[in-house]
Design brief:
By secondary structure, the chain is α/β, with parallel strands linked by helices. The protein is built from five helices and nine strands.
Amino acid sequence: MIVDKNNILKSISINSCVDLELGCGPNKKNSHAIGIDILEYDCVDVVGDVFDILHQVPSGSVNNIYTYHFLEHIAEIDKLIKEMHRILSINGKIYAVVPHFSNPFYYSDLTHKIPFGLYSFAYYSENKLKRKVPTYHNGTLFNQDLVKLTFKSYPPRYFRHGVKRLFEYIFNLNIYMMEFYEENLTYIFPCYEVSYTLSKKT
């Protein structure tokens, strides 16, 4: 069942070029975006299963898709990625943040279904990474504009947090350092999360 609080879905067309935030939870980060979540929080504009909702969104009608710590909860990730590709406009973008697979908290959350790492979206995109991965699709769907590793700790662990931010600076200096980190150092210095920016290929 879908609860569309303000009948937003019916107003979306190929000319409307809206922004979506998938799995926005109780704290939507992009106030201008249409908030989508399976739970009915105040900031959620459309409540329901993400696949049911996106099925009602016209192809090519979305400018930007934002998602923060949501994709790891989706077992059918291939289906969701292809659906996001369908609804994006020409040169539309996905901004995604997920836990890195080395994050100690990743496996503590029993709702997590899919681990992510540096190369995860390389299977769907033209990317700038040195290590090439096989493509299991009929061609790449996106250009991978950005991938970034994030290291952090929680208050009151301020010294530890500062050290981790230094790691973040070093390991994000260039592609070689990112790939060296993930191949050799992930379980010595766990990474908190990884961010991707993808643009739809035309």
